[in-house]
Specification:
The complex is a heterodimer of chains A (202) and B (254). Chain A is α/β, with parallel strands linked by helices and 202 residues long. Chain A is 24% helix and 28% strand. The chains are: A alpha/beta (202), B alpha/beta (254).
Chain lengths: 202, 254
């Protein structure tokens, strides 16, 4: 069975993502051990809290993560876990992983956080092939990458458009929570496993 | 564009059972939380809220098991409130599979708890729950399940909570709770004007039209529904169909 390694940066609800991947047909382990990161078939970076707290939480694993991605291990960053794929954030200090060029910015909507279900506008990337145009996903965030960063495969809008999902090769990021987005989100997790080549397409 | 206004199914949980009262009193058992949460998800609920009304420590331990069991199948967000005193309590809930923690009495007693929880888990994890009762000139905050009046105006307290780091405001009208007379619209209009956090309206839903009223024109970002669902008078699907007919853009799963 395909194994997903869930990288624990220290806080929040890992349980739901773990269950989400299980339902998508993967075996899941949760780790804070660099050795586990290096030997993974596939990685997921969940993230709640802030950019800086995820960057700090990942610090002991940073080298292992970057080496694994270099070696072609697929990685999916979720919410703040997507934000740390970029170089930096307006939210706070610390260097992101720099796997996607760009800087994360504050949302400028009248009501923040962006909390709830918003429609996705996808660009046809096979990762999101199960997501219908305008299908809604669940968001809970106050910062996001601009809609024109390299590798954007879906955008959403809250006080202006932002990057809802990015993909550069085997580096994937979702600003929304696929594990909390009903059937739409389940399709996003299955798509990640399929595009990563760890679960054969059916 | 704002997110789709949410319909949230709320379950008051006492020692592992779903209960519901009227104006915070006369609690009666109406179901089993794991099954009820799953049923409301299937009906199209956008989120589930568990409010722990257990009086005992044993009841609270039961809640963590209920959260865990619920979260293992739920694919929509789960907020859990009631009895949260410390950052450690929040951590245990999140580790059990809750996405957000609703803090009420403990935040009034020690507002720094909001700050600490937001710093540790992010502002989007911290829901400030406020029980508000109308009196001349405004709404007074009550704590301890509506038993104890606090020296706080509900709208002013919401602003303080926002500034301390609460990511969402779940405001229950004690006068409307369980009465099915409709939401206290004026309260939510005041809150909307005074704050820039998502507002969850709670207390008074008796019909789908009541839900449409509070979600129309962006008065509230989400509507909490309990009694009408538990009694089987309406399903979330029926509420959403009506609310959509009234011109509110709601999430409908394809």
């Amino acid at each position: 069975m395909a194994r997903v390694t869930l990288v624990d940066s220290g806080t929040g609800n890992l349980f739901s993502l773990q269950e989400g991947f299980r339902r998508a047909g993967a075996d899941v382990r949760v780790t804070r051990d660099p050795a586990d990161v290096r030997t993974s078939a596939c990685l997921a970076l969940p993230g709640v809290a802030s950019f800086s707290s995820v960057v700090n939480g990942l610090a002991p694993l940073r080298e292992a993560l970057l080496r694994a991605v270099d070696a072609g291990v697929p990685v999916l960053g979720i919410c703040a876990g997507m934000q740390v794929l970029f170089e930096s954030s307006e939210e706070g200090p610390g260097a992101g992983l720099g796997l996607v060029p760009g800087r994360v910015r504050a949302l400028s909507a009248a009501v923040v956080p962006h909390m709830g279900w918003s429609p996705l506008r996808t660009n046809g990337d096979p990762w999101l092939s199960s997501v219908g145009q305008g299908a809604m996903a669940y968001f809970a965030h106050s910062f996001a990458a601009p809609p024109d960063v390299e590798g954007v495969v879906a955008t959403a809008d809250h006080g202006g458009p932002f990057a809802a999902a990015v993909r550069r090769g085997l580096v994937f990021g979702a600003q929304f929570h696929p594990e909390k987005s009903g059937r739409v989100g389940a399709g996003v997790l299955r798509g990640f496993l399929r595009e990563s080549g760890v679960v054969p397409s059916t | 564009m704002s997110p789709a206004p949410r319909i949230i199914a709320c379950l008051d949980v006492d020692a592992g059972r779903v209960v519901k009262g009227v104006r915070f009193r006369d609690l009666r058992v109406v179901g089993e939380p794991v099954a009820a949460a799953g049923a409301y998800e299937d009906q199209g609920a956008d989120e589930i809220v568990f409010l722990d009304v257990s009086a005992s420590a044993e009841g609270r331990e039961t809640l963590l098991e209920v959260v865990r069991e619920t979260a293992s199948t739920l694919t929509i967000p789960l907020t859990v409130g009631g009895g949260i005193r410390t950052v450690g309590d929040v951590r245990r809930l999140l580790r059990s599979g809750a996405d957000k923690a609703g803090i009420n009495t403990a935040a009034v007693a020690r507002p720094a708890l909001i700050q600490e929880a937001a710093a540790e888990f992010g502002t989007q994890c911290v829901v400030l729950a406020i029980d508000a009762k109308r009196e001349t000139g405004g709404w007074r905050v009550y704590t301890h399940g509506g038993r104890t009046p606090a020296d706080l105006d509900a709208v002013a307290w919401a602003v303080t909570g926002q500034d301390l780091g609460a990511g969402e405001l779940l405001v229950t009208s004690m006068d409307r709770d369980g009465t099915r007379q409709g939401y206290e619209l004026e309260l939510y209009r005041r809150l909307r004007a005074a704050t820039r956090r998502p507002i969850i309206a709670s207390g008074g839903a008796g019909s789908a039209e009541h839900v449409a009223e509070v979600l129309r024109d962006g008065t509230a970002d989400a509507a909490l529904v309990a009694s009408v669902l538990h009694d089987g008078d309406l399903t979330v699907r029926e509420i959403k169909a009506h609310v959509a007919m009234r011109g509110v853009r709601v999430r409908r799963e394809a």
